[in-house]
């Protein structure tokens, strides 16, 4: 029973984190001249528009996953290399901002609400939202397709990096699934997520 309760507690955080993440990609792309996300209906905070079934299940069950990528057409950008970088980094940055906001909300709950069973549930939901946003941020910064990190690294490294990704794309996508299934991803990003979580709480508490 506690297993399902734990999953229910982190569900709001998952839905919010993926919605903010993908909306941010789309918003920045549109602002930089590519209207593809708007045409495809991705300029919304409705999580249904952003959920990738496999990525969502991975997030819910093992704590690491992804949303349906926002499609962009870099030919519409004035500076494709720079603008692709900005669009790619927007998602992880938005998750970090959300983590900060929800730590502040937790501080307000701690300061102004009495300790009851209900506030403890609210606290758990808020803490889960902070954690999921940090997980989604750090996970997506890994430089492996289809994650944002590979777009970021490709934008910085240029054609040699893109050629590498194009050549080994399917192998890398398979590798990340194996890493998730056997929880190697947790060992890679877990210490970073814990550090960031402790850092934020050390600032506000």
Automatic annotation (TrEMBL):
Instruction: Classify the main location.
Output: membrane
User: What cofactors does the UniProt entry give for this protein?
Assistant: Zn(2+)
Question: In this protein, which residues make up the domain named Peptidase M50?
Answer: 13-156
Source organism's superkingdom? Answer: Bacteria
Give the way it sits in the membrane: Multi-pass membrane protein
Q: TM spans, by residue?
A: 50-67, 87-109, 121-142, 174-196
Q: Which GO terms describe its biological process?
A: proteolysis
Q: Which UniProt keywords apply?
A: Cell membrane, Hydrolase, Membrane, Metal-binding, Metalloprotease, Protease, Transmembrane, Transmembrane helix, Zinc
What name is this protein filed under?
A: Zn-dependent protease
């Amino acid at each position: 029973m506690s297993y399902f309760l734990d999953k229910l507690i982190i569900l709001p955080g998952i839905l919010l984190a993926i919605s903010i993440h993908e909306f941010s990609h789309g918003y920045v792309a549109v602002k930089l001249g590519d209207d593809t996300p708007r045409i495809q209906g991705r300029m919304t905070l409705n999580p249904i528009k952003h959920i990738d079934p496999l990525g969502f299940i991975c997030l819910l069950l093992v704590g690491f996953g992804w949303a349906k990528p926002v499609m962009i057409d870099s030919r519409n950008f004035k500076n494709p290399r720079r603008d692709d970088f900005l669009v790619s980094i927007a998602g992880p940055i938005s998750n970090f901002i959300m983590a900060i906001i929800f730590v502040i909300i937790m501080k307000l709950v701690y300061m102004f609400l009495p300790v009851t069973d209900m506030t403890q549930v609210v606290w758990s939901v808020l803490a889960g939202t902070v954690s999921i946003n940090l997980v989604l941020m750090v996970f997506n910064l890994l430089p492996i397709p289809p994650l944002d990190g590979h777009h970021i690294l490709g934008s910085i490294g240029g054609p040699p990096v893109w050629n590498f990704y194009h050549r080994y794309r399917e192998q890398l996508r398979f590798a990340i699934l194996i890493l998730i299934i056997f929880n190697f991803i947790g060992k890679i990003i877990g210490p970073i997520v814990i550090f960031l979580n402790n850092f934020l709480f050390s600032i506000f508490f």
